[in-house]
Amino acid sequence: MKTRILIVDDEQEIVELLEDLLLQKGYEVAKAYNLTEARAQIKAFKPSLMLLDIKLPDGDGIDFLKEINTKHEELDVIMITGLADKEIALDALKNGASDYITKPIDLNYLTSSVLAKVITGFSR
Question: For the whole model, what pTM was predicted?
Answer without folding.
Answer: 0.94
